[in-house]
UniProtKB/TrEMBL annotation:
Transmembrane segments: none
Keyword Metal-binding (UniProt): yes
Keyword 4Fe-4S: yes
Coiled-coil region list: none
Protein name, UniProt field: Aldehyde ferredoxin oxidoreductase
InterPro entries: Ald_Fedxn_OxRdtase_dom2, Ald_Fedxn_OxRdtase_dom3, Ald_Fedxn_OxRdtase_N, Ald_Fedxn_OxRdtase_N_sf, OxRdtase_Ald_Fedxn_C, Tungsten_al_ferr_oxy-like_C, W-dependent_AOR
Organism: Desulfuromonas versatilis
Reported cofactor(s): tungstopterin; [4Fe-4S] cluster
Amino acid sequence: MDKIFRVDMSKLTTSIEDVPAKWAGLGGRALTSTIVAEEVVPTCHPLGPNNKLVFAPGLLSGTAAANSGRMSCGAKSPLTGTIKESNAGGTSAQQFARMGIKALIIEGLPKDDKWYGLHLTKDGATIVAADDLAGKGNFAVIEALEAKLGKKTGVVTIGPAGEMKMAMANISVKDPDSKIRSHGRGGLGAVMGSKKIKYISIDSEGAPGVTVADPEKFKQAARTFAKALLDHPVSGEGLPTYGTNVLVNILHEAGGLPTRNFTLGQFDGHDKICGETMHDTIVKRGGKPKHGCHAGCIIQCSQVYLNEQGKYVTSGFEYETIWGMGANCCIDNLDDIAEADNIMDDIGVDSIESAVMFGVAMEAGILPFGDGKGVIRLLGEIGKGTALGRILGGGTGHVGKAYGVTRVPVVKNQGIPAYDPRSVKGIGITYATSTMGADHTAGYTIATNILNVGGYVDPLKKDGQVELSRNLQIATAAVDSTGMCIFVAFPALDIPECLPALIDMINARFGINLTGDDVTNLGKSILKIERQFNIEAGFTNKDDRLPEFFNFEPVPPHNVVWDFSDEEIDAFWNF
């Protein structure tokens, strides 16, 4: 029987609760957003006592379903002020599910100034002293906890940036190789830091495991689903070969690769940082060009990147990070970007927000464009919390205000990732209307605008973009609730058997009879819950807008601007 683990840091107490009936059919993002909407005062300070941090595995986490190992984390965001859900791979989601933890809710603030850890077993949560790990980087925390508690222990941790409550701090999750995956966006590491929790350790020894109501039906559906993932050219071939960084050359050719703080759509140094170059470099140095971020991942879009001496530098080296530090900051040295990625993992900052922030910092003259060594030096200042480091750690919008920069690519104060909304207009609608601030994963129109997945909508024209973004945001909200990796969307959009197989797995898992319409309605419901929270927090349709420079600065090579009217953007919510 699933349970809710609740931790009150004000009283330093823990409890186990039955799952309310109204939450029983929810998982992942649906559950974190529902709990935050029900239990968090929308106008509260994100770092104050009334915010809550919620972790929830997906509906299929812990089963044998391929790519179902994502954990959702939710709270009110200190970066955006909106509701936030950020999901990550790693080992924690499957451990939670096998232990019967439907959700972990952390509330309140401790009265003293000590650091704490949470130790989770199937029998409950225990609060332990953690002052000895204060100030440590994420890699050192994982190493120390494995030495103390064993190699199988799951770890969720914050780095120094989270301890200092920086708005771009993330929450790191141990992966199967004792490296790091991240709840990256929205500054949720600062929320965990405000509650003085340095880490969560997870001991799933003796866990009862996940029960499946109809094992044979589940097995058949899981087989069909896995075949669809492997048969699709993107999830079965492109991503496993080149990782998500396959997109550098694709977006460069499309003129949608934001370059030099969003002043250009193509980067002259693209060949030096692209997925093809990264693949060849990894193979030459003896790294791993294919790697999964959690057990059961069959897409394997991650990789292990080594330096010239064959020493580990980073893994999970993603397109958005490489684009941001590369094209956006005009750095064409992949080794410098990899080292920066390692530091960001260790100090615990979102690599997308950091990269967009550095583009603004370069425009402000804090360091020159193309200065990879300068980025590495300044990441050190963020980790140490120097005066400049704290300004940078506040994120893109914070740096823009501090230095009077007007080209600040944010929506709801969250940095715009990786795809220029002027030349890929569908993703611009997603950036504008997402309940979470600028977030490409909220409704990944790149699939249809650029990759011809699920049909084709011309990225340079306005026609069909609002409908495309709306349909994908609804579908994504539902997928985020299953614990599935968002990349299952590629075969789900193209292969007729894929989505029914996903629904069949949910039905077989719980012994229910969901239809496709039920799943669509779940996605709509999640978006409306999140939007209502934001409205009660003070947001209006005027916050669903891109920065004005996109309206009057044409971006080469297509020389196009963002040309949607307010009424056209607002039509997104007509459902």
